[in-house]
Structure formats: structure tokens, C-alpha cells
Amino acid sequence: MSASRAAPSLPDARVLAVDGLTVTFRREDAAFVAVRDLSFHVDRGETLAIVGESGSGKSVTSLALMRLVEHGGGAIAGGAIALRRRGGAVLDLARATPSTLRTVRGADVAMIFQEPMTSLNPVFTVGDQISEAIALHQHKSAGEARAETLRLLDLVRIPEARRVFARHPHQLSGGMRQRVMIAMALSCRPALLIADEPTTALDVTIQAQILQLIRGLQDEMDMGVIFITHDMGVVAEVADRVLVMYRGEKVEEGACDAIFAAPSHPYTKALLAAVPRLGSMRGTDAPAKFPLLRFDPAAGDALVVAGGDATAASGDAARESVLFVDSDAAAASAASTASTASAASAASAASAASAASAASAAPTACARPAIDAGAPPLLRVRELVTRFPVKSGVFGRVSQYVHAVERVSFELRAGETLALVGESGCGKSTTGRSLLRLVERVSGSIEFEGREIGALKGRELQALRRNIQFIFQDPFASLNPRLTVGFSIMEPLLVHGVASGRQAQARVDWLLERVGLPADAARRYPHEFSGGQRQRIAIARALALNPKVVVADESVSALDVSVQAQIVNLMLDLQRELGVAYLFISHDMAVVERISHRVAVMYLGQIVEIGPRRAVFETPRHPYTKKLMSAVPIADPARRHAPRTLPADELPSPIRALGDEPEVAPLVAVGPAHFVAEHRVGGAY
């Protein structure tokens, strides 16, 4: 684009004004419009939340503001992006030259990306990457940049900041990588911060602290913030104004309080009705499906409720034309009409939203055979210990260990869901990886169907991995960028000899449909999908072999509430039909409450509370469990200023010197199958 156009003007209080932004992508012989005629503004010290389902154009909008969309095959086809730089000059980013953009990115506009593993350079340490940005934009010496980097790492509550400075991205948990990204984005005190799902990978306690941190820095620096998220609880916590996107267009915009109190567009009402609420399962023992909202063509595209278990009759929620199942093909055909809704539709939507809220408040448990507590467990873990060596010195000798998992024990039966919850770095993911021998344990036993997995080799180990599948936390890093998603899903079918040829292709098409994607998505590559769509692809791949156990590591954390509801319902359907067991690793307490039979709370590699879901959620006994519950954001802006107690001390480090063994508190029974870590002075909490 030409840079010759005169610089646009902005009111003094305005940091960004977007006017008529249109973004297109080339696909074969046609141009697909991903964002159409979008206009909005952000003032100094203001937070604008952009919300919408996966594939609605939220992230494409953020990439267009940074002029990064062009590197992914997109183009800004029209519109202006006026930015007030830190020095006061106004620049049209849509027409800025590459050399100008290099000075703007990081210094005037910074971005927290959705997937930290693919955004951080795997070759350099995280400390060097942050220091480089500080030295480049603030012209500081190497020593000054290092000191500022350590300060920022402490600010985002990374324990052992000096040690983390020297680590590479793959050596950190997903939540810690996200905190590194946040520190990097804030390092140069930008005029505008774009946060694309910045708290997706964070547990609720760290999320609350990071939100508080961003608000504090925003007040201090008078910084404008664009917060892109699918978490309506987070929106209620941070947003001054809300912009709702649907299929590439703005369908509603207004003050946060007004949007939550009286949404006008049917889609906004649907989003708010779909928010999972902590406490919605009170009084029930078994998991329950989420109610879904869908368009009913016979009712003039009004929204109607597809109740939680009403969808089970068809066995396929994706076939119900659910409002939230979005595909690029559907977006292209419907973009021109997405922003209009009749008064009748709005009235029907209000009724549907009320019905959905009622259904959410009084869920109906899924009808499935009772779990036989007397039957042998499918999976038995006893005294599991997994540690990682820390080497130092000239000769690279082991001087310390990261105590990731310490004497963890649990059982999992067919048709059961055990949720592992806890803070980032507490050992949840390492526990899951140990089950597949993706990391080797130090001690303890893991038995699958009565056989110790440590003794399995060759074909027996391959058979184990067919029966225990893993849904990884980062879908972009776990999908091969050189393969079409169809082949990625088909590959396990071919490797294990389950299907081939047309039979395998039919299975791929069926799996894509089950997770709410069109069959023609099989011909596309991972980079052509949004983060939420990639996660659906990863779930389809994990389900391809009909495994007996699925380890779901933050499998729905990257999904908007609507698609999240579909995936949880799908998992419950498959559990009922096939008896599959889930080890559900998550930090989303509202989803955990909905899907799990039992819950295990982990802290610093140890289980501190385990028991039936109802007992743990309704009568939590351990102080850490209570802290997790109190940190869950609530989708109510009126509670934004309610007093909250967040931990101010540094998180304890799991790194210990050789011979320094952590003390593991024994579990004490406090109820039927409900155990809590013993208090250090004796007895239960």
C-alpha cells in the first residue's frame, strides 16, 4: 500500500481508530472476506474487549492491526487504521512502510499472541528474547536490559526468575510460556496493547493476577488495551466497552455493563447464555451436557434451545445447525446477513437465552450406566514420581531436580472422568505424559488393564498408545504444518492398521463433522484455521482410534464457550456410547464441574485433595482448593470492584538441590471417597 496519503487526525484522547477495515484471503481462484467493513476506536486508558466464536474474525482483526496478516496469506483490502504513537504523531498503519512498521511494533503497539509455544523462538532463551526487545526499542545496554527483564519476570509471578531467564521455551509449561509472552509485550510500555487470548493457558489464580497486573500497568501508563477473548467472565472483569463479532462483522458494540445487562443482538444473547457458571451443578452427582442454542430456519432463523440431553437422540450435536458451528465456507456465504436480526428473532432469542440459562442452572445428568466402583480400574497409578534433572557447571553435572510429580496416586475406571486441576507448573501435564511414557518416571507404578506399562515394548507399547490417546495443550505445535489436517487425522488409522483408503477417508469426514468442521477442511493446512478450530482438529485426531482412555490436556481451554459446550457434549456422548475414560486436565473450574465424576487438585506436584466432584466443589476442604474456587472470574461486571484477596507472595519453586526431598503430606479421609492432604500439625483441614 502507498504511504503517500496524508496522516489521519485523531481526538486527543484517542489512541486508535479503525474505519471500514476489510481483510481478505486468497483461496484458489476466489477471495474470502474474513473481516468486513469493521470500525471501532480505543481511547487512552480504555479496554475494548472483542468477543465472538472461533473463526469470527477476532484474531484476524488483531493481526491486521499489526500488519502481520499479510504474512499469513491475507491482505487489507480496504479501510484505515489510525494509531497515535507514544510521541503523539498519528500514523495510518494500513499504509505504513515496512521500515516504519519495524519501529512501531513492540514500541508503540505490542501484542500478546494466542499460542506462546509457536510465538517464542525455540532457539533462544526466553530471557534473551525479552532483553532483545528492550535493547532494540529502549536503547538500553545489555546489563540494563537483563535487569529490566528479570524485573518483568518477577512482575508476572514467574518463580526463580533468574533460572527461567536462561531456559528455552520448551522447558517451560504452557502457562509459564504465556507469562513470558505477557512480560515481553509489556516490556516497552506501548501506547496500545493487543491481547489475543492472553489468559487462555493460565490457571484461574494466575489469570486473576495477570488481569490485575494489566489493569495496573494500564492505569500507570495510560495505555489503550484491546482484549480478544472468548471468556465472558474475563470480559466482565476487564472491559470498559465490548465489541461482538460474528462471521467477520460487528453485530453489537456498547458499554460493558449495558451489553451484559441488556444485549440486543440474538448472537450476543446466545453467547451470554452459553457461559458455564460455577455452581450450576450444585445438588447433582453425574456430569451433565451443556444446553446448546441453534438457528431454526422454520422459525425465521430465531434462536431455539437444543437442550443438553435432547441432542443425544441424534447422537450428533454438530448436525443440529448449532449457531456456533462456524466454518469459513459458511462465513463467506452468510457474512452479508450476519449483522441483521428481526424483532421477532430478537424476542425469540431472549426466550432461548432465558431457557438456556434455566437449563444451565438446573442441569439434567447424562443417562449412562453407573460406574462399577467394584470393577477393576482401567488405569491405576501408584506413588508416581517424575523429575527432571537440572544440569550446571562446565561438565554439565546434575545439581538439582525439578520435582514435577511427587507420589501421585489415583485410579480411573471405564466410563469415568477424573479431572486434574491446579496452577500452571503444578505437574498436571507431566502426570498425563507419564501415562504414555512420553516422559519417563523416576519411580512408582502405572498399570493399564492390570499390566505395568513400564514392561511394555515394541508392538505392546504401540497398542498401549492406541488405547490411550492424548489431546495436547497447544494444537498448532502438535499438528504437522506440512500435512493437511485430513492426513494428520488419518495417520493414526494408517499406522495402527485400523482403516485405509476410502474407509479411512470416510472416518476422517465423520470425525470432522463430529467436532463441528466441514468435510472439505480435510484438504487444508493447520495455519489456515483459527486457534479454536485447530483444537477441534486435534480432538478429532485423538478420537480416531476409539481409545479406551483419553488424556485431555487443556483440550477446551482455547475454545469459545459455544464450541466448548459442543466438544464437552461430544465427549460425554462418546463416553456414554463407548465407555471411554477421560483424564481431564484443566484450569477451567466451571467446565471441570460440568464434565467430571471425580476431581483431583494438584499443588507443587502433589495431590492435596481428591474426591467426588460434588464433594470437592460443594464442600472443599483444602485451603488451596478454596483459593482456586474464589479466583474463578464471574460473568457479571457489577462484581468487578468487589474486594478480592489474591496471593502476593512468590510462587514456591519445584526445583530442589540433590538430596533435598520434598515432604509429601499423607491424604486423610474426610468423607466417602473424599481425601485431603493432612495438615502439617496433624489431622485434616
UniProtKB/TrEMBL annotation:
Signal peptide (UniProt feature, chain positions): none
Subunit structure, as described in the record: The complex is composed of two ATP-binding proteins (GsiA), two transmembrane proteins (GsiC and GsiD) and a solute-binding protein (GsiB).
Top-tier EC class: translocase
EC number: 7.4.2.10
Organism annotation: Burkholderia pseudomallei 1710a
Annotated catalysed reactions: glutathione(out) + ATP + H2O = glutathione(in) + ADP + phosphate + H(+)
Cellular localisation: Cell inner membrane; Membrane
Protein keywords: ATP-binding, Cell inner membrane, Cell membrane, Hydrolase, Membrane, Nucleotide-binding, Repeat, Translocase, Transport
Record's protein name: Glutathione import ATP-binding protein GsiA
Gene coding for it: gsiA
